[in-house]
Design goal:
The protein is α/β, with parallel strands linked by helices. The chain has 4 domains: 275 residues, TIM Barrel (Alpha-Beta Barrel), CATH 3.20.20; 29 residues, no CATH class; 61 residues; 117 residues, 2-Layer Sandwich (Double Stranded RNA Binding Domain). α7 links the parallel β6 and β7. α8 runs parallel beside α9, α9 crosses α10 and α11 packs across α15. The longest helix is centred in the last third of the chain and has 22 residues. It is globular and about 75 Å long.
Length: 529
Amino acid sequence: MTAPISPVAADSKIGSGRDNVVIFDTTMRDGEQSPGASMSLEEKLELAKILEEMGVDIIEAGFPIASNGDFQSVNEIAKIVKNSTIAGLCRAHQVDIDRCAEALKPTQRGRIHVVIATSDLHMKHKLQMEPDAVIDVIARSVTHARNLRDDVEWSAEDATRSDRQFLRRAIETAIKAGATTINLPDTVGYTYPSEYADLFDWMTKNVEGADKVIFSTHCHNDLGLAVANSLAGVQGGARQIECAINGLGERAGNAALEEVVMALKVRGDKLPFQTGIDTTHITRASRYVSAITGFPVQYNKAIVGKNAFAHESGIHQDGMLKNRETYEIMTPESVGQAPSSLVMGKHSGSHAFRAKLKDLGYELGQNALKEAFGRFKDLADRKKHVYDDDIIALVDDALARGSEKIRVSHLRVVAGTEGQSAELTLDVDGQAKSAEASGDGPVDAVFNAIHKIVPHSAALRLFQVHAVTEGTDAQAQVSVRLEEDGRIATGAAADTDTLTASAKAYVNALNNLFARKEKSAPAAIASGF
């Protein structure tokens, strides 16, 4: 049996002589296609900075033809990011490719990412094209893209369910037309590791020109195999992994960036590859994505979950006290987490608060820090013990609400056996608007009051509450999901008052829903290969 890698080895830089694996982040493109995960331009710009600082090689910033919002996101990110390549997705149509090239104009490090399906199922029912026609489209589209950019990626949607000989023909066509990266996506999460590894091994050995390109994985998690398949693809010859922070993505999501990166780092004995990722930024990126999308990270999520480095079992605690390597194959510090050292309370000063935030993976500007510190002091006055999770919830709540047009200003709720009612005041575009409403329970009364002030036809699809920490004074963290005309938006908020948190979460979801309306991306052309 192979000896486990020690935390020291896992935290050290991998030496030279190992093949490099390119990390391609698609959180802002495929990740944003998760129902309710829409991000504003400001949030995408901040995320792009975080990904660049982390050392992500390629940032797929959007799908420029989908909407003006997506075009602007790619264009603005292309202006500010200097060290990472910015990619834009497009279908194999000239108008898509031209729009993508236009969005990428501000950067010298731009990639046009062209996709078309190659499986019999997709060609017959979705494209309604014969195989020869698909080959012709591949040749024309990739040639056109290469005339506009030197860096062109071609993706075979539903590659893992494609006929192998036809797929080889399609890949060779793309390479001859000028593609520099070939992506073989497991679009529906159907393949399994040995099968996927064999696909790359066979293609790299049998495709003419395979030595001139980089092969890439793009795995969905429908069977929970996205990370395993991505790593298997690398073992088979792929040298790029497409992934997303927290595994965000359509349906069951994509391969999680934090998991593939740490697997390569910790298990260098079996996976002799390296990435350029500074893993100490992982926790910060995870928390930011969770905050802006309203998608909470499950407690037992690998690498970034709340319990990833928690040890409650007496046996485990005893082992940890004697030697951390007994139950930790990597250290919390290696992914940007830190063991609790500062106990925060109402007597803590701003310097200690700043240091705590840094330990937790947050770097706030002066104004944001001042606001967060004020909210921390208010919380400390209400709570005897302020835990790390309380501070995380507090900062994430501020990030989630960002520059909202609608805010909760005042809330008073009457509840009891004689009925429930709510008096609410919202700040709507700078104007105070008030309403009173009753309901079947205090939360229902609050939501009815919001509806009176901001009329809408959205249906409530999810209302979820959980305590951030233990105790009767624990903050309540509330998640709300709304749906209107096929659009889904999620909101989140935290407060020691559950009803206040509920009102803020509902309003946060409304703000996100209205932002999606303004963005108005045509759903028919969305692609989540």
